[in-house]
Design a protein that fits this description.
With 189 residues, the protein is α/β, with parallel strands linked by helices. 54% of the residues lie in helices and 11% in strands. The protein has a five-stranded parallel β-sheet with strand order 2-3-1-4-5, sandwiched between helices. Helix 3 packs across helix 5 and helix 7 packs across helix 8. It is globular. The two termini are 22 Å apart. The N terminus is likely disordered.
Length: 189
């Protein structure tokens, strides 16, 4: 409990950005982490939908993935200009070299690492919400995406294995890892 109490006294100098696969819990854990740290929470996908005036599924269907990624890049760059906050990125955002460099230079990035089988179970609970999974074998698609994205996620400042943890357990783990990172990297703080 000492780390958890002392965390509230640590100065968070820049945004905390959560990256990882769909279903890793970036949005649900991000809002809880923000509450724990006394910061605002922003979901990049929600901001992209607001900027476009349509859902992500509609953006993909109407304009394609390339147009979505272009808009995503611009929205994330804008969101990184704000005060320290917790920001959840969409699963593919960190795969974009420009976005990844921007996040690595201007934020503290945390990879929410969850095993493929657990991700598959999680995303199956919300069918229809994930355009990349439409009309496909979910396990094969998640596996393919993870293999393509894991090297990019591996560049994050912090890797957090949060598999099989409750929300509270995952938040406690994230706070511990963030605390350790800030103390090991004083230039970050």
């Amino acid at each position: 409990m000492g780390i958890l109490k002392s965390m509230q006294k640590i100065h968070i100098p820049k945004p905390i950005v959560l990256v990882g696969m769909m279903g890793a819990g970036k949005s649900s854990l991000g809002s809880r982490l923000a509450d724990r740290l006394g910061l605002d929470f922003v979901d990049a996908d929600t901001e992209i939908e607001a900027a476009a005036g349509m859902s992500i599924a509609e953006i993909f269907e109407t304009h394609g993935e390339a147009a979505f990624r272009d808009g995503e890049r611009r929205v994330i760059a804008r969101l990184l200009n704000a005060e320290p906050r917790v920001l959840a990125l969409g699963g593919g955002a960190f795969g974009d070299a420009s976005t990844r460099a921007d996040v690595l230079n201007r934020a503290i990035s945390i990879w929410l690492d969850v095993p493929i089988d657990e991700l598959v179970e999680r995303v199956k609970r919300k069918p229809g919400k994930r355009p990349l999974l439409a009309n496909t074998n979910v396990h094969e698609k998640i596996t393919s995406l993870m293999h393509a994205r894991a090297p990019h996620y591996g560049e994050a400042d912090i890797r957090a294995d949060i598999s099989h943890k409750s929300h509270d357990g995952a938040i406690n783990r994230l706070v511990e890892l963030l605390h350790a990172h800030l103390h090991q990297n004083p230039s970050t703080a």
